[in-house]
């Protein structure tokens, strides 16, 4: 069986930093109140509904009905989501550029709300280097559901053994590996660079 020939990236916390706190720390000055808010109101678990393809308007209306005292902050989540993404992960733009220069085909599978991707993607020219990107909110399938990996492989015209997948989430990595995809649990650019070299991709 041949070595991987194409690289599939995750986006959040691999290519770009992401944390709800990056936005809400600007709006909630008390540290305890901030933690309370991002663990009980606008939480990563609730946000996953957007990644799974639920309409943002529905999510916002439902959450405001549940937490009317936080209506302004919940609206900020919808309107200022890109502020939860402060910039690229250190070393990753350079690594992507090197792979592209080496003519390694680049793809992505990202858990990302459809509306939020429409806000974020136009401002990020790094994705111009990518042949295709599967967005969970658009497809209404989110990692680690194996169906999103199958959809991506079909769209990218790759067999599992041809792909090298990178994700910071261990469940997503395990799901990809179970399908026969060589996978890297991301922690930092230096470790990824070493693994890409080990597989002859850099």
TrEMBL record:
InterPro entries reported for this sequence: HAD-like_sf (IPR036412), HAD-SF_hydro_IA (IPR006439), HAD_sf (IPR023214)
The record's Pfam families line, in alphabetical order, gives: Hydrolase (PF00702)
Record-linked CDD domains: HAD_sEH-N_like
Q: Which PANTHER family match?
A: ALPHA-D-GLUCOSE 1-PHOSPHATE PHOSPHATASE (PTHR43611), FLAVIN MONONUCLEOTIDE HYDROLASE 1, CHLOROPLATIC (PTHR43611:SF3)
NCBIfam families, A to Z:
HAD-SF-IA-v3
From the Swiss-Prot or TrEMBL record, give the protein name. HAD family phosphatase
Tell me which species this is from: Flavisphingopyxis soli
């Amino acid at each position: 069986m041949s070595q991987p020939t194409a690289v599939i990236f995750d986006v959040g916390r691999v290519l770009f930093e992401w944390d709800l706190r990056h936005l809400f720390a600007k709006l909630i000055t008390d540290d305890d109140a901030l933690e309370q808010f991002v663990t009980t109101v606008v939480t990563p678990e609730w946000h996953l509904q957007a990644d799974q393809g639920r309409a943002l308007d529905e999510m916002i209306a439902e959450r405001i009905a549940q937490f009317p005292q936080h209506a302004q902050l919940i609206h900020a989540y919808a309107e200022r989501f890109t502020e939860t993404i402060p910039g690229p992960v250190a070393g990753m733009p350079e690594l992507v550029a090197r792979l592209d220069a080496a003519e390694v085909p680049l793809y992505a599978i990202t858990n990302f709300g459809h509306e939020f991707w429409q806000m974020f993607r136009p401002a990020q020219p790094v994705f111009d280097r990518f042949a295709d990107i599967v967005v969970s909110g658009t497809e209404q399938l989110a990692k680690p559901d194996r169906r999103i990996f199958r959809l991506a492989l079909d769209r990218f015209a790759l067999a599992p053994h041809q792909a090298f997948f990178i994700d910071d989430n261990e469940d997503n990595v395990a799901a990809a590996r179970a399908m026969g995809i060589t996978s890297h649990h991301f922690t930092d650019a230096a470790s990824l660079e070493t693994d890409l070299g080990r597989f002859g991709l850099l």
